[in-house]
Amino acid sequence: MGDRPDQRETEIAAIRAGIAAGARVIDTAEMYGSGRAEDLVGEALAPIDRQQIYLISKVLPENASRQRMAVSLDASLRRLRTDYLDLYLYHWRGNVPLAETVAELQRLQQTGKIRSWGVSNFDIDDLKELWQLPGGDQAVANEDLYHLGSRGLDYAVLPWQREHQLPLIAYSPIAQGDAWGHHLTTNETVKAIAAQHHVSIYQVLLAWVIHQPQVLAIPQTSSVAHMTQNVAAADLTLSPAELTQLDQAFPAPTTKQPLDIL
Question: Name one Pfam family in it (predicted).
Answer without folding.
Answer: Aldo_ket_red
